[in-house]
Amino acid sequence: MASRVTVEEFMTLRERGIPVIDVRSPGEYGKASVPGAVSIPLFTDEERAMVGTIYTKKGSVKAVQQGLEYVGPRLAAYTQRALDLRSDELLVYCWRGGNRSASMGWLFETVGLRSIILEGGYKAYRNYLLDGFRRSFRLIVIGGRTGSGKSDVLRALASAGEQVIDLEAIASHKGSAFGAIGEPEQPSTEYFENMLFDVLSQFDDTKPIWIEDESLNIGKVVIPREFFSRMSLSPMVLVHASDDERLDRIMRDYAFADPEVIVSCIRKIEKRMGSERCSQACKMALEGDMRSAAALCLKYYDKLYDNGISKAKADERVAGKYFHKTSEKVDIDYLISLKNKIVR
């Protein structure tokens, strides 16, 4: 018989590299899952709905019989997919740790695979995760105007062995009206939360974590509010670069896109940018003068960001200024010295 474990035990076993099997329906899995979980659904979305309807109207026995009729022809395929993972142990979960995970756990055991079921299922995992975002993480926020190289600084810190969270990489979005350019499709907010928690779980809570300054929304995903509140109260290090350096970086990251795509992004900020300036920027982009169009847009983003930074300064969040140039190596030693001063 398959054994059962708590969420804490499940997370520990997962860190050991034991494969995780999600036996929920494809629709449930597609919305969000435990990162890295393999989908081996007991039912299709339609079958799950039908079994649930029969359970409500005719009781559990009829529902089980209908379920067996659905899955009977697929049992061998289920076991083969599990065997293909080449592991003697499997972690298995469904929505609430009920019949679906128990049934698949039993099936995997019949072919010699030890099955470990997550007690409470994916729902328990999500509750554990959401509670985890309330922890008192020791964050240092990297701030700076658009194009100042904040992401470059984060990558350099990560290469130096520092604990770093790249929210934009997890969100598949650079965080502005132009942020989707060159990025894959964004995850759901729920899956974004799962991936963010996955990164946090690997960190030492007693040590600082570097993170980029972001709005609550990164494209269509939303940062967990408890974690965002922690970011908003954390010390900030400002990154500075000249306008030319910032434009060079923006051209690197966005200018390859089709002019029509750039124009559609500019239109998103027309209301705040102003119709005249927006029309001018669009005209420049369509004529191939991307740098001038970007320079106009930067004036809007600079004003927006500077207003936010002025509030941070008033709250004494800004702990130091770091001047970083595109052509120069990131001064890791200086940043670490700042870290030691502001996080004790």
Q: Your description of this structure?
A:
Helix content is 54%, strand content 13%. It is α/β, with parallel strands linked by helices. The protein folds into two domains: 3-130, 3-Layer(aba) Sandwich (Oxidized Rhodanese, domain 1), CATH 3.40.250; 136-342, Rossmann fold. The protein has a five-stranded parallel sheet. Strands 7-8-6-11-12 form a five-stranded parallel sheet, sandwiched between helices. Strands 9-10 form a two-stranded antiparallel ribbon. The longest helix has 25 residues, at 290-314. The chain is elongated and about 70 Å long. The N and C termini lie far apart (50 Å).
Descriptive key words:
Rossmann fold; 344 residues; 17 helices; Oxidized Rhodanese, domain 1; alpha/beta
Mean pLDDT: 91
Number of domains: 2
Beta-strand percentage range: 5-15%
The CATH top-level class label of the largest domain: Alpha Beta
The percent of residues in helical segments reads 40-55%
Low-pLDDT residue spans: none
**Category from helices, strands and their pairing:** alpha/beta
Query: Assembly state here?
Result: single chain
Q: Summarize the main sheet.
A: 5 strands, parallel
